[in-house]
Amino acid sequence: MHIPFLLSRKYLFSIKHHSFISFINVLSFLGLLIGIASLICVTSIFNGFRLLVRDMLLTIDPHIRITMNDELKHGDITERLKYYIQTLKVQESTSTKIIISHKEITQAGMMLGVQYFNAKEPNRVAIGIGLADKLGVKIGDTISLSTPSMLDIAISGMTIPVGIRVIIDSVFQISSGVQYDNSFLMGNLQFLLNNGIAGKKYTDLYIEHPDDVDGLKSSLQQDPLLQKLHIETWKDLHKDLYSTMEFERNMSFIILGIISFVSAFNILIAMWMMVKSKLKDIAMLLSMGANEKDIRWTFLLQGLIIGTMGSVLGGCVGTVLCYGQQYYGWISLPNSIVPTMPIALSYDIVCISIILGIVVSGIAGIYPSLLATQTNISEQLRQE
After folding, report:
1. What pLDDT sits at residue 65?
2. Alpha-carbon distance 275 to 290, whole Å?
3. Cα dist. 88→125, 175, 215, 220, 286 in Å?
């Protein structure tokens, strides 16, 4: 292996007689470097936005939601969940459709009742910024809440509907594209139950690492007590949004990965031209006793050297750019919910990108290395 390495290094870095081939090698190296760096940066940006959206959603949504039935009580579920050490917090919640009235304005919405809702008084609620704008309310205003069943009773009794009066305690904003801002309110669970504003009841779970919910969900579904209940993770609650983001990230990885294959094609062309220009040298080496394995490795190593150098340096450049954006915020996002572009660097992506670049470079060198072993010794020496 020592001789093929010395020969491949000599051929690769010798630019005196093969400047055009060396120029193609430089382009291949730069193409890999830029491609791998772009792959890491773009994937990290998608991961950053994914985590941003996830954290915004989880300000309201639980990590895992268990829909209760009439057979089990919240206390029974809580005791059972003590066996799962991943669970950090368990609370009871409820949701129901409501009619919201303020002065002459009426809007339909959803009421979320949370067991540990933080407010000074039980009759205070938090409202989404979009819904507050529709109703024309601000903090401190009073609104009236009614459920469809309350309206049905009032209509059947020919009476004027009387809603539950609550005070706006705070206004929340998740994201302009999420339905919570435009139709949701949050309030104290016990207050809502006492006033008949309750619908589906849930047991909400919160764990240390939200991305590990799939494993915990599988364990809960196998539990004899819980397997009859409907269990959803935060990914299931927003399945369409999550699937779209995953699809966009994967497609960007595939599209940018094509850059590596384009660079590998350049490596193949450069190695093919190198073999054609070194046929006499190959014939002389074979006549002096070199075996075909050494010849194959001579040219295969050239592709691997270019691929390794370009991929490793591309990985370093991509990592440095991601850390720079993460800590110094080079790219700002004015008039956005975040001041700078979010970045979440994954070392798994860095390793996969580098390995991808090295592998495609090695594959690109296979054909030229096989072509080199097919040299006709007598013909090339006769021409010499």
Report:
1. 92
2. 16
3. 25, 26, 15, 15, 70
Query: Binning pLDDT at 50, 70 and 90, where does residue 331 land?
Result: confident
Contacts of 231 (CB under 8 A, 6+ apart): 64, 65, 66, 67, 217, 220, 221
Tell me the pLDDT tens digit for each residue of 157-209.
555 566 889 999 999 887 645 678 888 999 999 999 888 887 888 989 888 88
Give CA 170 to chain center in angstroms. Answer: 31
Residue 88 is given by DSSP the state E
Which residue, among 115, 242, 278, 248, has the nearest Cα to 191 in the 3D structure?
Answer: 115
**pLDDT for res 381:** 47
Complete DSSP assignment for 178-192: STHHHHEEEEEHHHH
* Nearest by Cα to 123 from 201, 190, 200: 190
Other beta carbons within 10 Å of 30: 15
Tally: H helices and E strands in the chain: 15, 9
